[in-house]
Amino acid sequence: MPGTWYVTSFYKFLPVTEETLPSLCDFLRHEGDVLELCGLILLAPEGVNGTVAGQGKTISMFKKLLVDEFGELEFKDSTCDVRPFKRYKVDVRDEIVAIGDPTLHPRVKENDHLPVAEWNTILEQEDAVLLDTRNTYETALGKFKNAIDPQLSHFSEFPAFVQKCTIPKDKKILMYCTGGIRCEKAALEMRRQGYQHVYQLDGGILKYLEESPYRAFEGECFVFDHRVAVNQELEPSSRYKLCPHCGDPGDKHVACLECGTEAVICATCEVDVPRRTCSLNCQYHTRRKALNATSELQTTYE
Ligand SMILES: [Zn+2]
Ligand SMILES: [Zn+2]
C-alpha cells in the first residue's frame, strides 16, 4: 500500500510492577491494533522500549497515549515509503535492553547526557575517548570518526569488553548507540568498573543525524527493521539489504549462481561461493551440485 509511514523510537526506564505488566501489555497491543501500527514494543519491570510505525495521524495519536501512560518521553522520528515491520508486537521481557544483568537500573536522567551541540563541541575541542556500544554488524555500516569499536556480537558482551580494555580510568568517555538506550546501561557498567567521567550522546545516532547530518558521524546507521539502515538524512538505506544467508546487512551485488536472480549478500558470505546465491534454497542446491561433482570426480579416480 503506498503512502508515507511515520516511524518513531522511544524508551524510558521507570519502575513497572510485575502485576501491572500483563494489563499494560494488553492495553498497548489493543491500542496499536486499533491504529493499525506495526513495530515492536518491549516491556519489563525496568521500563519500556519500542519502535513503531503508522500512517497518517495514527503515530501522533499513539505518542499521546504513550505520554499519558509513561509520562514525558523523547521520540526519535523518521519516515519511509514501505511498511517497515511485518507485524505489531508487544512483549514482556526481563530487560528492555539486554546486557544480561537486570540489576543495572538507570532510573533518573542524570547530567551525563550530552545534547548534540555539546557533543560536537567536545569532539572538536577536547581529548576524549569515543566509544561505540553497538555490535560489529552495526558499526560496519557507519560510526563516529575515530570511535573505538568494541567488536561485540551481542550487547551482553559489553561488561567483559570493559574489563579487558586498556582505556585509562580517568579519561573522559563519550559513548553512543542507535537511540541511546544501550548507553544507559553501558554507562552504569563503566562506572561500576571505575570509570569516572562517562557521558552519552542524548538520543543516540538517530537524534544526532536529525540535528547534525554529514558531520562527525560517517556512513549509515543500522536500524532493526526492514529499512536495514538509514542514511545521513534519516531516509531508508538504498545501499544495504539483509543478507539472505546470515541475516547481517550486506551491499555485495551478485547474480544468483543457481537461478540468476540479482541478489545482495554480505561481504563475509561472498567469500563462500555457494552463498553467492539469492536464498537459502538456492544455496542448498548449489552446494549439492558441488558435492555431486566432487563425488563423481572421486569415483572416476577410484
Ligand atoms: Zn551473509
Ligand atoms: Zn537463486
Number of helices, where a helix is a run of at least 4 consecutive DSSP H or I residues: 9
Strand order of the largest sheet: 4-1-3-2-5
Which spans have pLDDT < 50 for at least 5 consecutive residues? none
Number of domains: 3
What is the CATH fold-level name of the largest domain? Oxidized Rhodanese, domain 1
Provide the structure class: alpha/beta
Outline the biggest β-sheet: 5 strands, mixed
Shape: globular
Counted beta strands: 17
Account of the protein in words:
- By secondary structure, the chain is an alpha/beta fold.
- It has three domains: 5-92, Alpha-Beta Plaits (2-Layer Sandwich), CATH 3.30.70; 113-230, 3-Layer(aba) Sandwich (Oxidized Rhodanese, domain 1); 249-301, no CATH class.
- It contains nine helices and 17 strands.
- It has helices at residues 21-34, 58-70, 116-125, 136-139, 158-164, 181-192, 204-211, 267-270, 280-301, and strands at residues 5-13, 38-44, 47-55, 76-80, 88-92, 113-114, 129-132, 142-144, 172-176, 197-201, 217-219, 221-222, 229-230, 241-242, 249-250, 252-255, 262-265.
- A five-stranded mixed sheet has the order 4-1-3-2-5. The chain has a four-stranded parallel sheet with strand order 6-10-9-7.
- A hairpin with a 6-residue loop joins strand 12 and strand 13 (229-230).
- It binds zinc ion (ZN) (2 copies).
- One zinc ion binds next to helix 8.
Task: Fill in the keyword field for this structure.
302 residues, alpha/beta, Alpha-Beta Plaits, Oxidized Rhodanese, domain 1, 3 domains, four-stranded parallel β-sheet, 9 helices
